[in-house]
Amino acid sequence: MKDKRAQLSILLSAAFLMATSAIGPGFLTQTATFTEELKSDFGFVILISLLLAIGVQLNVWRIICVSGMRGQDIANRILPGLGYFVAYLITIGGLAFNIGNVGGAALGLNSMVGLNINAGYFVCGLLSIVIFISKNAQGIVDRLMQILGALMILVIIVIAIKTHPPIGEAVIHTFVPLSSFATLFFPILTLLGGTVGGYITFAGAHRLVDAKITGKENFAQINKSSIMGIGIASLMRVFLFLAILGVVAAGNHLDPENPAASAFHYAAGSLGEHFFGFILFAAGITSIIGAAYTSVSFLKTLYKGILKYERYCIIGFIALSTIFMRVIGEPAKLLVLVGFLNGLILPITLTIVVIASRRKDIVGNYKHPIWLTILGILIVIFTLFLSIEGLPTLIADMMNIAG
Prior knowledge:
Layout: H1 2-22, H2 25-38, H3 42-67, H4 71-78, H5 82-113, H6 117-133, H7 137-163, H8 167-175, H9 181-196, H10 200-210, H11 219-249, H12 259-297, H13 304-308, H14 310-328, H15 331-356, H16 360-363, H17 370-402
């Protein structure tokens, strides 16, 4: 019984690690930004990104957990040296995302207590390091993720009810959007990248490998954990979309420097803004740690030094993210762009997983469902198309930030 409870706790932790890695500051900022821009058509973006995310999650988690190997080791088995390329790619993407996490957490502190954003960068970075230095860091992070995930959903539901969004219009445009499909390329890939792109979809799977919950005998639990992670993130996205849609449908304009916080201010006054600030700050802290943990996990089996000094490498990763955020600035814009950047990585990592699913030296006698393989291939093609179509927008926005 105790073992079953311990396993359930780890499965929940894996789900919440994936979900809270997705439900970070970027998730909140992206949803607010695109809801104001697309109005009820954003429901269509959420629907498409959700369907794609489920396909990605089921493919990645199954292959990693049946093989008992981390993503970089699977890539090296397919082609020697490929694992190093993937590890570097995901670590760079994770660093970019973590820079945004630091910025988002600082935005939360600014909304909550009025702390200067530049000072907030260092406060958030130091607090994340202090949490990770703790002897029971993994237990603390697991518990924080579960509590904050539930708390965020509860608060968003309350705000969504209070703003009275046009639900009928949202439902219709979720299936029949008014916007041209071309204008939805960038938002779809940004949401997909922010939900399962880069390091995020590997976060929970690597957690299960570390806990040795692998093999076909654990498939039922692994599938439940993976779907739960997507479900938590998607539920949060839908209610947040409805809450902000109610705000912008009433004719309010969001603050471009902190769009999500201003939406909560319109919905519930200064109290709503302060409370949202706390949630944004807390989500940012857990995302900082989750991104650092998963990014370093892609390097630790490739370099013995990183494996030996894993904790110090994670601390260094957090410190570097904090310094970069202070230098770059403009956290709200960066939080949108890094989601798209992670989306660019997705076709590469998913292609590796699809190839691995047909390799007996990786998955043994396991027979990967043909429908999942086909779905994986279709998602690779679709995300490649979205990447090519949306790349000019990414480059233009990056030039604006740099300029």
